[in-house]
Design brief:
Elements (H helix, E strand, L loop, with lengths): L4 H18 L3 H22 L4 H18 L9 H27 L4 H6 L14 H6 L3 H12 L4 H8 L3 H20 L1
Helix pairs in contact: 1-2, 2-3, 2-4, 3-4, 7-9, 8-9
């Protein structure tokens, strides 16, 4: 399918900003940030269970990491796709660090795992919208659901990002969908 002329112009403009930013132009990187921060925020917000403050921190961390790693961007994919991957890695890395910290403090169970992510009271509220239901999922189930159903990653990509087996990714997706259905039926 042919791309629209406006999309080709936009892609060329983003490629120009990337090239300028790779040469140290902070203003060009700021343009990239402005063009992509909303989508990256949405990803981070979902991955951290709707914790707005944590999502904002993760967005900033992702763009700082992108700035420092921009020389590694080869253009094999769009900048937005690359930035999305950087943000997912930052969010998942942050999650692993928080879970390790909590694991040192007390034994892991689902309640502790939720606490590590900026917990929400899973039993609170009668009717929940979809974002609330997703935000209340256990961390691993939410991660897989967001990456697979919302962001379009494949199970093999999720396994690579999270360090879990492909079968575990599929099981977590099944679990997440079941929990979301149950939450929405209440």
């Amino acid at each position: 399918m042919a791309r629209e002329p406006e999309q080709l112009d936009a892609d060329a403009e983003v490629a120009r900003w990337v090239a300028l930013a790779q040469n140290g132009d902070a203003a060009a990187f700021e343009r990239l940030y402005c063009g992509h921060c909303d989508r990256i925020y949405a990803l981070c917000w979902r991955l951290c269970g709707g914790d707005a403050a944590l999502a904002e921190d993760l967005v900033q961390d992702a763009f700082v990491r992108a700035w420092s790693k921009l020389a590694l961007f080869r253009g094999d994919s769009s900048f937005g796709t690359w930035m999305h991957r950087v943000a997912a890695n930052v969010a998942l890395s942050d999650r692993r660090i928080r879970l390790r910290r909590v694991a040192r403090e007390q034994p892991m169970d689902d309640a502790v795992e939720r606490t590590a992510s900026g917990a929400r009271d899973v039993t609170a509220g009668l009717r929940q919208d979809l974002e609330q239901a997703i935000g209340q999922l256990p961390e691993r189930a939410r991660t897989v659901l967001v990456l697979y159903d919302i962001e379009g990653y494949q199970h093999s990509e999720i396994a690579e990002l999270t360090g879990m087996a492909v079968g575990s990714s599929k099981a977590q997706l099944h679990r997440a969908r079941k929990l979301v259905r149950e939450a929405l039926e209440q």
